Structures are given as structure tokens and as C-alpha cells.
UniProtKB/TrEMBL annotation:
It is an enzyme of class 4 (lyase). Gene3D superfamilies: Class II aldolase/adducin N-terminal domain. The lineage of its organism: Bacteria, Pseudomonadati, Pseudomonadota, Gammaproteobacteria, Cellvibrionales. Zn(2+) binds at residues 97, 99. Catalyzes the dehydration of methylthioribulose-1-phosphate (MTRu-1-P) into 2,3-diketo-5-methylthiopentyl-1-phosphate (DK-MTP-1-P). Pfam families: Aldolase_II. This is Methylthioribulose-1-phosphate dehydratase. Keywords: Amino-acid biosynthesis, Lyase, Metal-binding, Methionine biosynthesis, Zinc. One of its GO terms (cellular component) is cytoplasm. Belongs to the aldolase class II family. MtnB subfamily. One of its GO terms (molecular function) is methylthioribulose 1-phosphate dehydratase activity. SMART domains: Aldolase_II.
Amino acid sequence: MPRDRRFYESATALAAAGEQLHQRGWVPATSGNFSLRLSPTTAIVTASGRHKGKLGPDDFIAVDQSGTPLTDGKPSAETLLHTQLYARFANIGAVLHCHSVNSTVLSLETQGSELVLTGYEVLKAFSGVDSHNTKVVLPIFDNDQTISRMAAKVDTYLAAKPDCPAYLIRGHGVYCWSDDLDSCLDKLEAVEFLLQCELERRRLHPGQHTGEKQ
Ligand SMILES: CSCCC(=O)C(=O)COP(=O)(O)O
Ligand SMILES: [Zn+2]
């Protein structure tokens, strides 16, 4: 597949996002991966192992829905976690995966498979949420080096709970998706803010882990 104008525009937008996310400390040491939908069945994803704060046009690969590369290079090791989201949600156009301290620590410190967030005004940043009293659940999946196995678990969950705004991988990071890159960045910012609030609460009240389900 030739790298067309859309490919380069998408690469430029994702590189700028990567710079921003790296400055925030959310993609340290080459961690994280980003993608944008190119067509109903293709996406552009970051190449594996690249520093996400210093991305150039050669640091992106076009892939099909099964994660097979359509342009030269090795796509992210976690490509399937992106393509499964594009396959499941026809409306989404962007997926961001980060390794922030907040998502890494909170996913390790939360027992059980769900982090429950409630009481925060910022919850209203998620579509369909109109009150701070609403309960928003972020599922936590156990980390697994076999990405296809993890993708299958994520997909089963999202089939049952399509309104899920984002998910955590234990000791690893966060996945977030949205209609386009700007709204995905906004959503990620909201998720990170909420995770930081939860961590602060737990520091203030050790032993009272409110936001979790056993
Ligand atoms: C250095 S972090 C370990 C791999 C990882 O979790 C990640 O997000 C980056 O992997 P990629 O293949 O997309 O560079
Ligand atoms: Zn990762």
C-alpha cells in the first residue's frame, strides 16, 4: 500500500500527540503506542520500540484489521489491541495507549478486576455521563505477553459493555479510544486526572480503597 497524503497527515498528528504525551510523562522509555483509523478496515499505528516523544514519518506503519502490516516496518507489539477497537466500534477514529505512573500503580494496587470511579465532576467528560454521582467502571485486565489472548478478553468485555470509556492493564497502563485524535487526547486527560485523584485519596485514607470491586 502506498503511503498517501492521509498517511502522512495522520503520522504528523500522532507525532505531535506523542511529543505532548511524553512531556506529560505518560509514555516513558519507548512505552505506549498510538493509532488513527485510515479507512473502515485500515489504521496507521506507531512502529514497535520507537521513542514516542520523537516520532517521525518512518515511525508509523499502516495495518489491516488483523494487524498485518501494509507498509514497511514492524508495527507496535500491541497492534491487535488497537485494531480490535476499530473493528468493534465503527465510529471511533483514534486509540491511545500510555504507561503513566497513575495507571500503572493504581492498576497494581486495585484488587479485583474493576476500578469504580464515582463522585468526581470530571466524570462528565465521558459521553453519556451527566452527573458526578454516576458510577463509571474501568475494567482492569491482567497483563499478558500474548497480546491475542489479552485482545480476546478485552473484546468479550467490550461486547457486553460497549459504553466502557477506557481500560487498564495491570502494572502496564491504560487504553483509551474516541471519535478522533483531539477528543481521544481530551478523554485520556480526563482518565489520567481521575486516576490521580483516586491515588491521592488512597494516600490520604490508606486501607479504605473506595474505588474498587473485589
Ligand atoms: C518499553 S514498554 C514495553 C512494551 C509496551 O508495553 C509498549 O507499550 C510499547 O510497545 P511497542 O511495541 O508499541 O513499542
Ligand atoms: Zn504498553
